[in-house]
């Protein structure tokens, strides 16, 4: 059984014409899983509905507490991409679970979103990886602490080694 914790982020954004902006809506994770032909073997728990730029230390501690309280050894966390690496850092101390964070560069409700691919990819990754904390985005898996978001390229990449 895989526990899926939702926190919001771009993957769940909805465009509101009335005020010409995106806001976090109901999670589309159940629909994304169904579209990926993933029908069972998971439990979904909504933790929050926030843009990752709005997450603070208390939110990250709540995510950490939810992970530590989980009865499942494999956990997916949907998360906004802007501060996903910060949350992964907070979770790095959890060594007895396989934790994979994922998100989307475009809202799942948009036609050209990477959300379906990312959730399917993360689903496979969380089942295959050993215990640890990872980010799975756009066909790549990164270990927490060794990844950054490249804003210009709109992708995640391994951080260069420092001397």
Automatic annotation (TrEMBL):
Active site: 10
Organism expressing this protein natively: Marinobacter oulmenensis
KW Hydrolase (keyword) present: yes
Superkingdom as given in the UniProt entry: Bacteria
An example molecular function term from Gene Ontology annotations: asparaginase activity
InterPro entries xref list: Asp/glu_Ase-like_sf, Asparaginase/glutaminase-like, L-asparaginase_N, L-asparaginase_N_sf
Protein name according to UniProt: L-asparaginase
UniProt enzyme class: hydrolase
Short name of one Pfam family: Asparaginase
Gene3D superfamilies found in the cross-reference section: L-asparaginase, N-terminal domain (3.40.50.1170)
């Amino acid at each position: 059984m895989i526990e899926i914790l939702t926190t919001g982020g771009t993957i769940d954004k909805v465009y509101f014409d009335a005020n010409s902006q995106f806001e976090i809506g109901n999670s589309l994770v159940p629909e994304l899983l169904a579209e990926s032909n993933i029908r069972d073997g998971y439990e979904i728990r909504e933790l929050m509905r926030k843009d990752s730029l709005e997450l603070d230390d208390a939110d990250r501690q709540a995510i950490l507490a939810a992970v530590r309280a989980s009865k499942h050894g494999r956990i997916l966390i949907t998360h906004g991409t802007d501060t996903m690496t910060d949350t992964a850092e907070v979770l790095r101390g959890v060594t007895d679970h396989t934790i994979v964070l994922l998100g989307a560069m475009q809202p799942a409700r948009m036609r050209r979103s990477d959300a379906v691919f990312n959730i399917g990819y993360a689903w496979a990754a969380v089942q295959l990886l050993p215990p640890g904390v990872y980010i799975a985005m756009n066909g790549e898996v990164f270990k927490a602490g060794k990844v950054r978001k490249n804003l210009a390229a709109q992708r995640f990449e391994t951080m260069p080694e420092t001397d």
